[in-house]
Amino acid sequence: MTDDVQELFLPILYYSGSYQEIGYEQGRALINTPLIENHTRRLKRSKKRFAAPVNEVKNLYDHFCPGLFQELKGLADGLNWPIDDVIHEYSGFQGTRVKAGCTAAAAAGVYARNYDYQPQSYEGRLVITLPENGLAVFGISQRLIGRTDGMNEAGLALGYHFVNRVKPAEGIVCSNICRIVLETCHTVAEAAALLQKLPHRHAFSYSMADALGRTAVVEGSPRGVAVFEGTSQVCANRFRAPRLQRENRKVVSDSIRREDLAEQALKNEISAEHLYKSFNETKQHKQEQISAVDYSQWNGTLHTAVYDTNTLTVKLGFGVNRRPVELPLKDLFRGWQTPIKQIRASWKTSLALPFHQKLTEPK
């Protein structure tokens, strides 16, 4: 069967106030949407596989990021869900299967990242949170309060990379770890220190850059954490630290290929424009491109994001060969709302997209 190109408009969403109010407003907006209907079905299955004790989750969040537990409480009120169900589905404590093939490159305050996965798990929500007592954060949502990647008002940009899910342990999943770091850290140094303290559910890497020009890759699993810091970094889907390499999947050749291409992109030119093009374009020969289009095999580029920590801007494209849309996050973090309300996504796949209703083109 030939895959059709599916096009949707992904909304840019703003939430401000207390963390509990931010959670409540999201819950009210999402009631009866296909996304929540999908999550309700998933909840019934996942309850049979793992537990997420409310008191244990509360103690964990109170220690590392108290505001997010308040957001979960508000979400429960907004969705009219029991708090136990919201904690189970969205707290990121333990969690279900995650597999993805993401690539990143960072240098001189510019952080480029492809999020490669399959669109049935995507939420299609670009979220800006402006909490009363916390950092303003932009990110692409996963499990509602989690983020696939993002940047905060301090100029810290961050994203995660799947490595393996063998031998999971009690801990927090990748998307919620990203959100905790973006909510609480200002620099790469702070983020690396926090990632060494957080309990990791699965084996993931976290790549990042900050406004001081520092970059890092933190490799985290239930069995250890390794930190690589410097003025430039590339990252795909493998651990490089010798003591953690046993965590890697058997075949890492494609990760090495994408890392080499990302390294070459940094050598050619360090700019948001160049890195966006390098990460988003397809080539005549697939081996020469960083992007991917195998959506049915859990390996298609859902978005390319290039964060400039110096100017607090982000260039976004949803799908491959997309013209980038730039958002002035510095202004958005101050409360200004861009006239851009939605961004068009285009993925060549016949898979059903349950994360959001198809939207009409804005007038």
UniProtKB/TrEMBL annotation:
Domain named Peptidase C45 hydrolase: residues: 110-322
Family matches, as Gene3D superfamilies: Penicillin V Acylase, Chain A
Entry's Gene Ontology molecular function annotations: hydrolase activity
Domain of life: Bacteria
Coiled-coil residue spans: none
UniProt keyword list: Hydrolase
Matches recorded under InterPro entries: C45_proenzyme-like, Ntn_hydrolases_N, Peptidase_C45, Peptidase_C45_hydrolase
The name this protein goes by in its record: Putative choloylglycine hydrolase
Lineage of the species this protein comes from: Bacteria, Bacillati, Bacillota, Bacilli, Bacillales
